[in-house]
Amino acid sequence: MQIDLIKGHGSGNDFLLIDEMSHDYSFTDKDRACLAQVLCNRESELGADGILFILESQHFGVDGRMRVFNADGSEASMCGNGLRLVARYVCEQKSLKEAVIETMKANLKVSQQEDLYPEIHTYQVEISPVLFELKSLPLNLNKPTLFNERIDELSDELRFTALAVPNPHLITLVNTDQLRIDIQKQLSEKVNGPNELFPDGVNVSFVKSLEPGAIYVRTFERGVGFTNACGTAMSASSLVTCLTGLNKMENVINVYNNGGKVQCVVHKFDNTYTIDLIGNATYLYKASITLNFEDNAFILDSRVDFSEQETYDKLQVEAQKFIKQSMEG
């Protein structure tokens, strides 16, 4: 079976895009999980954090549908960095400046934006719904919500906030020393292995305030491990910094990560929240493969590289320089 794909990234969080709108692939969910496990393997000729399957939506007024499969074959309900790539693909295919994309939990608005950095394709995507009820994650604690509180089973020092956007997230605000030790890896592996707190696992983010309006976020992503960036985690982290008074709602928050930089704006309407996530949607190459489902193997038939990463590298260098200066300062 021949499959065409594009490899791209949002903030270094890399994905393979497979267009099911224009091709008659007829994948089953088992096929999609298998594809993710085979193609995303970092030892293969492709490798990625996951696959973004782009489909037609059956909903009126919706321009496309996104399904996200992680490298381990599990399906994610949402992916902010991936949604930017899907937004770009759908908008370019349909000659749109803004669109609505169906995800597992909600239909979300996306739009092309002014370049975040010169010559970088930039898209804004809506991150919602935001849910604080622990049953939404789920998190098994004898309380309805968790805001800036300790979890005795995880740490004596750290305070956590739990929320779903709609992926489950556990956020903690830390200092530089807490970032440098391996506590994040230890507790992340604990809550994503067999455990009583998070039966479905959870994304774990350590957040460091760099200056007013700027934060650093490092995320251990459920089903993936440590990633350069996680869009929903950066959005959830921005919201938490607003709720704790570090940043202000309706103001742009510069969010730095190991893959570069994005911007978030938190909105509150009555008692509900939404977050705008603004960042790059960078294409690396397009490729064609021949897949053998029976052997779980593929052959790379062709690959054509784009030149967009050269420009993104400049943003990443500036972002890493700012992070280093802020941490040392």
Structure description:
The chain has 329 residues and is an alpha+beta fold. The mean pLDDT is 96. It has an 18-stranded mixed β-sheet that branches. Helix content is 22%, strand content 37%. The protein has helices at residues 29-39, 80-93, 176-180, 183-191, 231-243, 308-328; strands at 2-10, 13-19, 50-55, 64-70, 75-76, 98-102, 107-112, 122-127, 160-164, 168-173, 203-211, 214-221, 225-226, 253-257, 260-269, 272-280, 282-292, 297-305. It folds into two domains: 2-126 and 280-319, Diaminopimelate Epimerase, Chain A, domain 1; 134-278, Diaminopimelate Epimerase, Chain A, domain 1. It is globular, with a radius of gyration of 19 Å. Strand 1 (2-10) and strand 2 (13-19) form a beta hairpin.
Whole-number total of structural domains: 2
Q: What name does the CATH topology of the largest domain carry? A: Diaminopimelate Epimerase, Chain A, domain 1
Percent strand: 35-45%
Instruction: Choose one word for the global shape.
Output: globular
Overall structural class, as computed from helix and strand content, comes to alpha+beta
Look at the structure and name the CATH superfamily of the largest domain.
Answer: Diaminopimelate Epimerase, Chain A, domain 1
